[in-house]
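user: Here is a favour to ask of a fellow structure person. I have my own habits and do not want them to colour yours. Could you put it straight underneath, so I can go through it closely?

assistant:
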Amino acid sequence: MTSAIHSMNTKVWGMLILLSILWGGSFFFVGVAVYDLPPLTIVTLRVGIAAFTLWGIALMLGLRPPKSIKVWGHS
């Protein structure tokens, strides 16, 4: 059996820190927002912002949504 020792380089540490900030920030802002907004509003805003961001990234990468209605209706 071989054991591989993996060391974390600067790029991996940076990605881990970025993930921690994004994930932790999400919980922090939901905790703050829940005092002023109802939960359904918070969920709607989070999903809307995520959808808008993902559509923007997909379009920047040159991905286009399918034009066939059959593709959209297929599940």
Observations:
- The radius of gyration is 19 Å.
